[in-house]
Amino acid sequence: MLKIGGVEVLRADDGPFRLDGGAMFGIVPKPLWEKECPADERNRISMTCNCYVLNCSGRRVLVDAGMGRSWDEKNRSIYGLDENAPTLLDNLEKLGVALEDLDAVLLTHLHFDHCGWATRPDGAGGHAPAFPNAEYLVHELEWADAHDPGTRDAASYLPHLFDPLEKAGQLRLLPGRGELRVADGLVAIPTGGHTRGNLAWRVDSGGHYALGPGEICPLRPHRRTRWVMGYDLYPVETVAAKRKLLGAARDGGWAVLLNHDPEAPAGRIVPAEKGTDFEPLEL
After folding, report:
1. CATH number, position 124
2. Number of domains observed in the structure of the chain
3. What is the pLDDT of residues 258-274, one digit of tens each?
4. pTM for this structure?
């Protein structure tokens, strides 16, 4: 656990998976990125789904909801999913967090590896919210693009993972392009870049700060400003958001909480002889 001012931060991952290393690093040459993220015989790198539980003055917020397990054999093979690995729900239970305990779920965006447990099968052929008492927070631009079949990343949106949230009356759309305080000590930050409605988040409590950069910096190597994913729809926006947010985290010595790094989910960006390094923190 990390204590950031009055906010407690706990990690609950949803198990390992793999994605193509070239897609994760875009135009960065493989001889550079594979030094830190070795690829397997299918050019995939090891990743995980790091989700975070924030205790904000008695209000419990979950940031992102993992990959889920509703996958057929073909997709389990593509993504290297381990069906025997503990799930997000298992890890929440280990932390003593019941599904009913969560007051809010902040979804940084709606790609399937971030909202896999937002819903689960309801036993009647459909899906229902996995966290019955939670308000689910999504940016309005993300919600619109998730329902646009013409978007470049349409295949990454699976409506059964999020449409039941609206039907259940548990969806809250976040407006605008400015920062939004979504709980005591927690701010959502629209960044664009990865998607139009992509969010980062910041713990802001009693003069203490931590940054969840979301998909603008999913792995430690992405701390480099120009190392941008091939998945990013608006890479120039990603670079600008990284320069601003990661720069503030570096200069302020903030904890940085990564959403896909399997080895060092938490750390600080520190100056190094060549650029910066990522100094791990216990979480």
Report:
1. 3.60.15.10
2. 1
3. 999 999 999 999 999 88
4. 0.97
